[in-house]
Design goal:
By secondary structure, this protein is an alpha+beta fold. Helix content is 57%, strand content 11%. The protein has a four-stranded antiparallel sheet with strand order 5-6-4-7. Strands 1-3-2 form a three-stranded antiparallel sheet.
């Protein structure tokens, strides 16, 4: 559960050092044989305005959660992602970079669970995992999400050992209240809209500046890593509910389009700068 928590923190305009470190490993460490030296990590974080003491404190916490593990390569101290953390990041890649919005014809994934009273902690963990995956609560012990999340959900529940409490179905809504009304009850749409609007308000000015002037590689790095760190929770908060069921002018669409624009503009120059720092 600790590893899942690392990747499930809410989007915020001031990402914490631990969140930024996870983003750096997701973007660059995995491509470097799943390893970054201590020196490279400190330099990259310094570029993001985080001092070395804060980096070391955050790394210690990530090691306690078994997100990072100490590993020396060719005599240089460094850290790698644990196998479980790598799995979580792989799942996150699809959700963050390749998610699509569901349509009504896709149907729904329905999770029904029953956890013995003697295992209340597992019940809480199961509810937490489903919530982080973007499920809404239809009734006690009955959770619903767009059907396109079924495969990812099955992997997460199996990885965390929660699958033994669960039955999962693919379903259509046949009645009786209007589905848009039910969706507004199963998800906190006001909160989802507010999170997306906050992202747009924070990063629309960045996109506007980029439209007027191309950023240097170093500037792109300093903009891209915090932006991605802020963004990465939003595709989990909003599981891609069909637009027909959402309020008109859904703010999640504008946020998704803005992320795609920024990702296109910043990803490669940010990577060039990161690689130059790592291999200096």
């Amino acid at each position: 559960m600790a590893i899942a928590a690392t990747f499930a923190e809410y989007a915020r305009p001031d990402p914490q050092p631990g969140q930024l470190i996870v983003t750096l490993y997701g973007l660059y460490g995995r491509d470097e044989s799943n390893w970054l030296s201590v020196a490279a990590l400190v330099r990259l974080m310094g570029e993001l305005g985080v001092d070395s003491q804060a980096v070391r404190s955050s790394v210690s916490r990530l090691k306690r959660r078994d997100t990072l593990r100490s590993l020396a390569v060719a005599g240089s101290a460094g850290y790698s992602l644990s196998p479980a953390a790598l799995e979580v990041l792989r799942d996150g890649d699809a959700r963050i970079f390749r998610a699509r919005r569901a349509v009504l014809a896709d149907g729904w994934a329905v999770v029904v669970f029953s956890v013995p009273e003697s295992e209340r902690e597992r019940r809480h963990e199961l509810r937490t995992q489903l919530s982080r995956l973007g499920f809404g609560t239809a009734a006690p012990g009955v959770w619903v999400a767009p059907a396109q999340l079924a495969r990812e959900t099955a992997r997460v529940l199996a990885r965390t050992g929660l699958d033994r409490y669960v039955d999962m179905f693919r379903a259509d809504h046949l009645g009786f209240a209007g589905l848009a009304v039910k969706v507004a009850q199963w998800w906190d749409l006001d909160e989802l809209a507010a999170q997306s609007a906050a992202f747009t308000a924070l990063y629309r000015p960045v996109a506007d500046r980029l439209a007027r002037r191309t950023a240097s590689d170093a500037e792109a790095f300093r903009q891209y890593v915090p932006m991605l760190t802020t963004w990465r929770r939003l595709p989990y908060l909003d599981p891609g509910l069909p637009l027909e069921l959402l309020p008109a002018g859904w703010s999640g669409e504008a946020a998704t389009e803005l992320f795609a624009e920024l990702n296109e503009a910043l990803r490669e120059p940010a990577r060039r700068h990161a690689m130059a720092v790592i291999h200096a």
